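Team,

Forwarding the record for the chain on the shared tracking sheet. I've put the sequence and predicted structure together so nobody has to dig through attachments.
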Amino acid sequence: VLNYKINSSKLLGELPFTSALHSYETSNGKELPPSNSVKDLGVTLTPDCLWTTQINTMAESAKRMASWVLGTFKSRSVPVMTLLYKTMVRSRLEYCSALWNPHKVQDIQTLEAIQRSFTRRVSGCQSMDYWDRLKYLKLPSLQRRRERYIIINAWKILNGKIPNDVEMKFYTSDRLGLRAKSPSHFKKLPLLGPITL
């Protein structure tokens, strides 16, 4: 949702990187120099508004956790492994995913590779391909889960459950049904398509 130019955004204009690269001063007089990235609430944002840095950081964290899980627990049974994966690994891959949902194929593949690798180690799944493993384990792909989160978030905005900070507009088309339109200052926003209520 934040994939738009920082200088044209009132939401991101106060971050310590702009085209002018200003220094900022805190209320107690400490100077903050310009930065190549800003981390807030565990999410890393860069001046180019690409999420590759955030995605690579999360992928490394999830790989380390997956390695720890596989090295600590002997059992490779489906119930044990899916519970451990969902609680210990997948949660790291999905933190704030409605914000940084990747649109680059390389970033999507980086995230899916962790789930692909982990599910290969579950008992009875070694000879299956990735999509058959997901069916067998009753797991959706990470991309499908992120799309679901975005649709849920749009529904919450539509129904006033959360504030519409991104100024998303909704309209009804006789041919296409309910549609969502993002403001013109967005470079890219994942396509929401028709929303059925």
